[in-house]
Amino acid sequence: MNDMFKPDEEIINLTELREAEEDVGRNPSDNPTMGDIINRRFSRRGFLGGSLAVTAIATTVSPLALMIADEARAEGMSAFSFTEVEAGVDETHHVAEGYDADVLLRWGDKVFADSPDFDPMNQTAESQSKQFGYNNDYVGFIPLDGADDHGLLVVNHEYTNAELMFPNWATIGKDGEGKDKVMMGEFTKDIVDIEMAAHGGTVIEIRKQDGKWMPVLDGKMNRRLHVGTEMALTGPAAGHDRLKTNADTSGTKVFGTLNNCAGGVTPWGTWLMAEENFHGYFIGELPEGHPEAVNYKRYGAPAGWYNWGTHHDRFDVSKEPNEPNRFGWVVEVDPMDPNSVPKKRTALGRMKHEGAESVVNKDGRVVFYCGDDERFDYVYKFVTSAAYNPDDRAANMDLLDDGILYVARFDADGTVDWMPLVHGEGPLNADNGFMSQADVVIEARRAGDLLGATRMDRPEDVQPNAMTGKVYCMLTNNTRRKEGDENAANPRANNAFGHIIEISETDGDFASTKSTWEILLKCGDPAVAEVGASFSSATTTNGWFGMPDNCAIDADGRLWVSTDGNSEKRTGRTDGLWAVDTDGDARATSKLFFRVPVGAEMCGPLFDPTGETVFLAVQHPGDEGLATYEQPATRWPDFRDDMPVRPAVVAVTKQGGGKIGMA
């Protein structure tokens, strides 16, 4: 932590530091919030919180009333049928009755047949580079040979918790005010190199045998990517002077990817890794008067979360001032070729990407959606110039180098204007420091500022539904939004629990520059009147949630939402996976299907093509309070004294077979 970051609350571990940093909000723009008067009133859509009379609860609901609502859920209303999990907090995971949740891959598990066994007491970077990485986030599945029970699992590894990874390293001590705090050990080069190897991603072949998924360790396409993996920069920023370094004078080659949060799989079967909080990996100070100073301030770099720059010059901006410009991109990987060079597709813009989910438009072009995960930042979509060719995979391999990036303005009349980030259009010109499209994509945030995009409450996953023409935007929270700064699309000040926006693309045209929107859900406990949650009255005491983060559309077009930030002290429950109705009388009804162990975040989710498996990524389990390797909040999933707590991917299937969430 450096002087740039001064949190309001005491920070006791890395996860809390990351959350507090995201709570800062670095958008200095005064973009209009729907007008001086109309901004301070809900539009009809915002007030209703969505159509079909989904209303906020105006008075405190008694426990008796909630119990009656629990018992009175009308059968047949919901698109989902399963026995709801009871919300709560404990050391293990819980899944709906009649389902199995099997741990498929843990941190340190073998990725190759010759990978070393996981030995937490004797970790090395070489071993980690052949083992499953840390803090699994996005999960994707690519069928092999057209089979539903055989394919490649692709998994992002977002970040590392050194205090939970390394024995005899972190301790519980006192800060300057005498308060208990996790005290980090020395970030030696060995520790740093292991962390770097634990980042990135994994490609691993999996197969379903006797109803259970198993890794295939001798799979020919198995691969580990990490911070040392060579990658290419492509698109409008490739080769630009702002991306050149001492190690790469061409500005076209970069080593590694980091902080890969959500992601996507393209229609042509490539894997997209979205680089999110890249700013946290840099230390040092720019030389006085350096031209990147304004750019880096807008992104919060360098934040100094990690000490990599002490041992690797490229992560010290005083030595390599252009290196941060080489991160914050969407990385495309061909998992079918383990020797292929991943490509950072700069046309999709540089930001703190949360995902890159896609849909094939009716004209054949492909549309990608993304949130920029920070308070007061923006929602984007990218539309390819050329159409997808389902009969020629090779013809699609560079579609992401040519297209238009748009940023969203959510207007109070219920419309969305998708504004193009194109050099020379509007304010994106030399007068404002944009000399080319390279400058526009490198400083996508500032370009959005100038266009007047809507400052959102931490936009994360944005998921299109090809069956309905709808798009679901997860807005996790924003406790820094003040009274009087609300707008129709972000209607609550001090929004601690987040909300979900439903976008309707005009006539099912995902490439449209004009859409409509409404609020599907305002999250939080509906029993607390001042929260203003808008779950349907059929939602039980277990069914409500806060902090929506990722989401998925299953094979039947139903919405599932995973969360990040629920805890005993915030909501009295852990994060988990909730099924959310979006249509009919059950709209805005939510049911808890899976909950994670204490300290964990629920990432993924991903349904296989049949809808009979959902893959879930349990991230940073045990990271609650004063947690260290020796004293985690849980030892999930092994529950062995000689094993640390381990992030893991879980495969959930129905006992006896069948689709998830259906009778």
TrEMBL record:
Keywords: Membrane, Transmembrane, Transmembrane helix
Biological source species: Hoeflea alexandrii
Keyword Hydrolase: no
Bilayer-crossing regions: 47-69
Domain of life: Bacteria
Signal peptide residues on this chain, from the entry's feature table: none
Keyword set includes Transmembrane: yes
The protein's name in its UniProt record: DUF839 domain-containing protein
